[in-house]
Amino acid sequence: MVDNATEAGAAAEGVKPRSVRVVLMALMIAMLLAMLDNMIIGTAMPTIVGELGGLEHLSWVVTAYTLATAASTPIWGKLGDMYGRKGSFLVSIVIFLIGSALSGMAQDMGQLIGFRAVQGLGAGGLMVGVMAIIGDLIPPRDRGKYQGMMAGVMALAMIGGPLVGGTITDHMGWRWSFYINLPLGAVALAMVTAVLYLPKKKAQGRIDYLGAALLTVAITSTVLVTTWGGTEYAWGSAEIVGLIAVGAVSTAAFLFAETRAAEPVMPLHIFRSRNFALMSVIGFLVGFAMFGAVLYLPLFQQSVQGASATNSGLLLLPMLLSMMAVSLIAGRVTTNSGRYKVFPIAGGALMVAGLYLLAQMDTGTGRLLSGVYMAILGAGLGFLMQITMLVAQNSVEMKDMGVASSTATLFRTLGGSFGVALMGSLFTGRVTDAMTERLGPEAAGAVGSAQLDAASLAKLPEAVREAYQYAVAAGTHSAFLLGAFVAVLGFAAAWFVKEVPLRGSGPAPAADPAGGAPGSAPAAAPQAPVAR
């Protein structure tokens, strides 16, 4: 069955449409590539270090990818707006596949880090391309029915990534952790090329090279601060303070440059929409909570509850299944009713409740109870994950769909970086303090410097094991308590969202600077995208 919006677009182009499901399948494969990569590589990293060496540079295998992804995300969005989304999306897939192939052929750690940066450049365009093309192809009102599909891809990546990574590494070698992207990417490339038709665009103006450079410096400085602060360098060290200064100056210079650019890489006028600004804030907080939870929940269950590290992805199942189910329900309700304000409010409340309950876990908390807490958090994330993107895209004009999608994605990515860094710093400090209280400074330093799995913990003396488990529980308490406090801000922000009619649900208001897109075209497929 073809959506009415797609039929309207096809009629405008004079082309007979086919089902959009084939296009969506290709987009979901590309989305899976972007999300699955780091999950698989994390499991393979010990083997990679064993063969290539360079343990001291291990963190850069992930950092190079993350930096390149974050820095290129807004640029891909703008390129799609200026030159057409299909072309930029296909180029991003090709760059990602080239980076994957080169990473699999790396002969030393330096090469691997460089090739991972290439891979990250392509990955920056994958998520943005998926979101922006869906934004072009499907009107906001109809978009809700596909939210469960997106949440399902995310759950599949988080659950299956570690399992697939471990299996591939054990039976095929770590290089296939990168090569596995090639057949999947080739399928997505062929399907998108064959069945996706979007209106051709002629670039107007010049690319904002100065803005792109300043934004790259600002994002790089921010990500490095959150990655290195409290781990590689002390928060008050010259390196971190210097990076903060560089980030602040480059951000200020970027904002000034964007007011002068003919075609700004991130048009500041999109933030005049109250809804868009609020969704950017809420997306940042969702990233903060989600990535922190994904990192510290398995650590707690392995160290305190004695779960196996092999099936670490399955430990998140209650949260991910809840997130997927609630996202599907919220999407269907949005499609049928056109209403959505209740979901950010409900999601914010459940996210606060879930994080607060997780903060109450201790050494006596069983897996069933922690699973219930995780499900509550997952429900909150399910209400928020896709709704934030939906409302953000509905709050801008169609010509800004790419930069709106990339900006929303960027804020979520930066939220994840801040969440992991700040929760990690608090966690590490609390674990060290608790170990010192129980065992003294020398023993605390010897045991607390490593993350011990269930098998390693079983070999420790009982007193040391209990002290470590108590310390990890105390650390997760502090980390999740911080997460709950930050989530309160998202809950408060949700109350200020203005429920503007979704395009595709009837005539849209001509101008609404408080919430909707100024001059938004009504209803179906303003730019007549076609899937056939």
UniProtKB/TrEMBL annotation:
Question: What is this protein identified as?
Answer: MFS transporter
All copies of domain Major facilitator superfamily (MFS) profile, residue ranges: 23-502
Compartments where located? Cell membrane
One GO term describing the cellular component: plasma membrane
Q: Where is this region: Disordered?
A: 507-532
Presence of keyword Transferase? no
Concerning its family, UniProt says: Belongs to the major facilitator superfamily. TCR/Tet family.
User: Which UniProt keywords are listed?
Assistant: Cell membrane, Membrane, Transmembrane, Transmembrane helix, Transport
Gene Ontology molecular function terms on file: transmembrane transporter activity
Query: Which species expresses this protein natively?
Result: Streptomyces globosus
Question: Chief location of this protein?
Answer: membrane
Query: Pfam families, alphabetically?
Result: MFS_1
Classify the protein's membrane topology as the record does: Multi-pass membrane protein
**Membrane-traversing stretches:** 22-45, 57-77, 89-107, 113-134, 146-164, 176-197, 209-228, 234-256, 276-297, 309-330, 342-359, 371-391, 478-497
Q: Which domain of life does the protein's organism represent?
A: Bacteria
